[in-house]
Amino acid sequence: SSPAATAVTLLWGEPANHGDPITHYVIEVGDKTVTTPGPETEYTLNDLQPETLYRIRIQAMNSVGPGGFSGIHKVTTRPLPPAPPTLELVKASYNSLKIKWGDGRNLDMLTYSLQMEFTNPHNGTREFYQVYSGTNQNYKVVRLEENTEYRLRICASNEAGVGPYSAVAHLSTTKAPPPPLKAPRVTESAEGSHIVEWCSVRCPGEDSILYRLQVLQAGKDQDYYVAYTGGETSYALTGLEPHTGYYVRVCGVRVCGDGETMAGAYSSPALFNTPKPAP
């Protein structure tokens, strides 16, 4: 039959026994011999070397003695399937993992099968499912949960067959920052202060959220300064210069259970002008 990389199964017809049953066969493989356990005309040679030419001939045995050898049959074993590459994390976000397993050239034109472990919805067991198959040497797994460890493995295949899977890689997503806020709204109070208001946002899990309000005076060569940090969704700005434009923007700050803080993206700035001073 068709040889494998390290084994070949031999099949042959039973020769004439001249009245005395055949008890077993002697198989000559190069300079080695193998004795079959019985008269069966099928035998698998194991522990062969890949990509190696073997010259094989067979001899029948009975109680009278050995018969003549068959003609030489030449068999070349196939190459081994490719070894698995090593998975490497390129970038992790709160909902994706970008992974690579080569330099991107794939000169041997291998096909890769990347698998990730998920829970089987039918029986609740953890099983590996294919998330990518192809010749690329990188892939971005998306739609993942934040702050979660995932188990992945990969194998390569070519004309020689499918190789073994790699060791399981344990890769984790990051925590998600707060979502961006819409631009705040500014109104002037009767007391002369300016009330900045913004919509609230929520964080995953039970983490709390703070807000950071920044102010920038228009026309000044300076950076935004922090006017307020806290859990409220409004703040009264006082002490501003009259007849002056100001930009305000706000972001959410996630306060994690371990004390870590993560600031989200700032909103678009809102521009407002303070009134002229009273005459």
Question: How does this structure look, described?
Answer:
It is a single chain. The chain has strands at about 10, 20-30, 30-35, 40-45, 55-60, 65-70, 75, 90, 95-100, 110-120, 125-135, 140, 150-160, 160, 170, 185-190, 195, 210-215, 225-230, 235, 245-255, 260-265, 270-275. The protein is an all-beta fold and about 280 residues long. The chain has 3 domains: about 1-75, Immunoglobulins (Immunoglobulin-like, Sandwich); about 85-170, Immunoglobulins (Immunoglobulin-like, Sandwich); about 185-275, Immunoglobulin-like (Sandwich), CATH 2.60.40. Strands 2, 3, 5, 6 and 7 form a 5-stranded antiparallel beta sheet that branches. The model has no long low-confidence stretch (mean pLDDT about 95). InterPro entries: E3_ligase_FN3/SPRY (IPR050617), FN3_dom (IPR003961), FN3_sf (IPR036116), Ig-like_fold (IPR013783). It comes from Procambarus clarkii. It holds the Pfam family fn3.
